[in-house]
Amino acid sequence: MADDTSIFIGASRKPDDSYQRAEELLLRYGNRHGLITGATGTGKTVSLQVLAEGFSNAGVPVFCADIKGDLSGIALMGEAKDFLVKRAEQVKLDPYQFQEFPVIFWDLFGEQGHPIRATISEMGPLLMSRLMNLSEAQEGVMNIAFRIADEEGLLLLDLKDLQALLANIADRADQLSARYGNVTKPSVGAIQRTLLVLEQQGAANFFGEPALRIADLIRTTRDGRGAVSVLAADKLMMNPRLYATFLLWLMSELFEELPEVGDLDQPKLVFFFDEAHLLFEDAPKVLVDRVEQVVRLIRSKGVGVYFVTQNPLDIPEKVLAQLGNRVQHALRAYTPREQQAVRTAAETFRPNPDFDCATAITQLATGEALVSMLEDKGVPAMVQRTLIRPPSSRLGPITPDERRKIISESPVAGQYDQAVDRESAFEILQKKTKEAQDAEAQAQQAGSGGSRWTIPGFDDVLGTSGRRSSNRQTVAEAAIKSVVRSVGSSVGRAIVRGILGSLARGR
Ligand SMILES: Nc1ncnc2c1ncn2[C@@H]1O[C@H](COP(=O)(O)OP(=O)(O)OP(=O)(O)O)[C@@H](O)[C@H]1O
Ligand SMILES: [Mg+2]
């Protein structure tokens, strides 16, 4: 049914509910983004699973978050359950074949998948501030902290690096204020306390090395199928801000690392963003604007972004306007507010004279949806009432044993499992403090007078010990390594740092 230019997603129905035609997503418009919406239990996850299967079979790697664990079944072969076989008949999916998919499990906490890590330096001040929900003044201090780290060659890898840097900044707040603007001890202290909370929430696992290599997300198998990266997000969802910030970071990393390719026959990667409302919930306008920009620009890198959420109104209009391939499952319409949401959702479709969109949205069965995919010239097709095909892989979660087996056989097994803690800001600042103390002790012993001042841990004017210069070298080396690692050679990255970096400054 589906050839290699499209993904079969289901069958649309005539007004008398008989079979009408196959509905397909055209792979060449797979990078024009998409949207899957609907109330709880209406079939969003299964629709996501069906799309992910289709992309993988076409050789397109997929990244998706698994909020409830029920997407993990995509790693294993489906079974011929009655209701699935019946659905396959209804949509004329013949033969209905079962299949398992090449899944790589990931987990920010390293429990249900390979650990995913990023460094603080990579995350940048904007996303860190968002993650920590900082006030504007605190965000200003965070920007200064990153600037100081850049200028002084301090690598920020993990949370303790940032803690050490902040402590150091607090110590010399007056001096720094003169140079960079307002850096007050209370605002630094407030950030330090927020960092502690973040640590208690388990975020410490996430920050550090080895950091995720984007290349590991765009793998294909020897038989030409795209890897399906499944992020275990059940625990992560308890910290929605970390979840949203992480996915935002991932999206910007993809944008930075992948070259400009224009429109291809099929995407290079497809990214599913479940619970997408979290990305925009009480996000400052600047951030929403930048997300809009990244979504718009990432298309020409061959990346398709598919938002999954309950209601299309959860997504800001400017972002919504860019989501070309739409699957709208049922919505409830009991309260006036719900009714309004249904009307608005209906208005986003190109109408079909055969039925009233708003009425249909409230009547859709489970696993049925209003579907409008982009067709020729990238124009949205007239909306159709569509029964979604059943998945080929397992419906529902896999067992912990099955998961363990898949993790141990994964192509990245052993590459991320062990955290590495190389010399970075924390260690360097510790050394410097010690050196400054030693030097002071020496000076006091020598009893020499003169103007001598130390700034604990920083640019001290004391001593001419060779130790310090060797320390400098280490810092410089580390800085170079950091730049090479995080900047790479792509021009795209510079643009992206611009997009996200310019946020706070624009305020
Ligand atoms: N295309 C389909 N074919 C067969 N059964 C389906 C299909 N879509 C959904 N179902 C049935 O409906 C159930 C609920 O679907 P699903 O888990 O996708 O809902 P959901 O919208 O993701 O819900 P939630 O918001 O709670 O996560 C599935 O477990 C399955 O039994
Ligand atoms: Mg679901």
Automatic annotation (TrEMBL):
Any Pfam family matching the protein: HerA_C
Stretches for region Disordered: 432-473
UniProt-listed Gene3D superfamilies: P-loop containing nucleotide triphosphate hydrolases
InterPro entries documented for this protein: HerA_C (IPR033186), P-loop_NTPase (IPR027417), T4SS_component (IPR051162)
Ranges where the Helicase HerA-like C-terminal domain occurs: 13-505
PANTHER family with a match to the protein in the record: SLR6007 PROTEIN (PTHR30121:SF6), UNCHARACTERIZED PROTEIN YJGR-RELATED (PTHR30121)
The protein's name: DUF853 domain-containing protein
Lineage: Bacteria, Pseudomonadati, Pseudomonadota, Alphaproteobacteria, Hyphomicrobiales
